[in-house]
Amino acid sequence: MSYYKILGLHREPFSTSPDPDFFYLSKEHDLALTNLLIELHLRRGLSVILGDVGTGKTTLSRKLVQCLRHRGEFILHVILDPYFETEQHLLNSLVRNFEIPWDQYYGTQNSGAPAQVTAPQIGLMDLKEIFQKFLYDQCIIKNKTVVLIVDEAQKLSQESMEMLRVMLNYETNENKLLQLVLLGQLELHSKIMRISNFFDRVSFKYALNPLSLDETRHMIHFRMKQAGYEDDGDFFFEDAVRLIHESARGYPRKIMMLCHRALKAVIMKDATGVDERMVRNIIEEDVRSGWLTLQKSGF
Ligand SMILES: Nc1ncnc2c1ncn2[C@@H]1O[C@H](COP(=O)(O)OP(=O)(O)OP(=O)(O)O)[C@@H](O)[C@H]1O
Ligand SMILES: [Mg+2]
């Protein structure tokens, strides 16, 4: 039996996977999400979300996709691991994942592809042209918005960044043909700064900060409710919430991990809720085992 069922819950409340159903709209996440939606509607081109490890970037991107998916005017693709050896690999992946009928767009005279040619064999210049024609067709002829979301964007190579910069040049008088959302850890910022003309193209940028104490409390209670907790009283007592916030310094992933372990402690002790002592025991256990020192040294 799953541990959370023992507590009368029907889902795991503190899973560390970025499930949009458990997305709590903190001030930071709300600002980022609302602005991203506006930018995409206005087709402004490039948006960048920065955030330290575990601040909720991937969760935010899942929520964004959830908001856009049911709206027919958006054509979406999310790159989760943006490591591409060459520009050609990146373009091939876009052609495949946007399901571009590349043979329709192949050839400058629009004469179609020769029968023996397959997408991976197409040269870089032709791939660029195919992608550009696809964007033009979708945006201008069909009035769709093509959105490319890149998570872990700090891993993009210099060549891939350059390629994306070129794609941001595809535009009409009014708007950009490709909408690009980059989410990444803080080093993405210096990467963007290193490429001339990339930083100028950023239409919206935002850095996610850790949660405040109030938001930590609300997020914990919200996730318990989403998981099926129905009692009026809070399962995590106030002192416990304060200590969790302090120890996790407001970082959502660390909050999740502490809460998850606290729930297991509740089960083992057959308790009725999470109190400060339980949380303190978990933290002390980490100190004793050297885990906190390892974490601080970047392990
Ligand atoms: N707004 C939020 N509401 C609810 N849970 C959240 C929120 N933001 C983050 N979390 C939780 O914190 C965990 C870490 O979030 P996420 O994986 O999105 O962080 P990240 O910034 O992408 O981390 P990394 O830099 O390691 O990729 C997630 O599993 C999620 O459960
Ligand atoms: Mg992530």
Low-confidence runs: none
Domain tally: 2
CATH C-level class of the largest domain: Alpha Beta
Return the CATH topology of the largest domain.
Answer: Rossmann fold
Termini Cα gap = 33 Å
Query: Compounds present?
Result: adenosine-5'-triphosphate, magnesium ion
Question: What would your notes on this structure say?
Answer:
This protein is an alpha/beta fold and 299 residues long. The chain is 49% helix and 11% strand. The chain is built from 13 helices and 5 strands. Strand 3 (145-150), helix 7 (158-167) and strand 4 form a beta-alpha-beta unit. Helix 10 crosses helix 11. The radius of gyration is 23 Å and the shape is elongated. The relative contact order is 0.16. Magnesium ion binds at residues 57-58, 151.
What's the helix and strand layout?
Blueprint lengths: L2 H4 L20 H16 L3 E6 L5 H13 L4 E6 L7 H11 L4 H4 L18 H18 L3 E6 L7 H10 L10 E7 L2 H8 L7 E7 L4 H14 L11 H11 L3 H18 L6 H14 L1 H6 L3
Parallel strand pairs: 1-4, 1-5, 2-3, 3-4
The structure holds adenosine-5'-triphosphate and magnesium ion.
The site of magnesium ion (MG) has 3 residues, from helix 3.
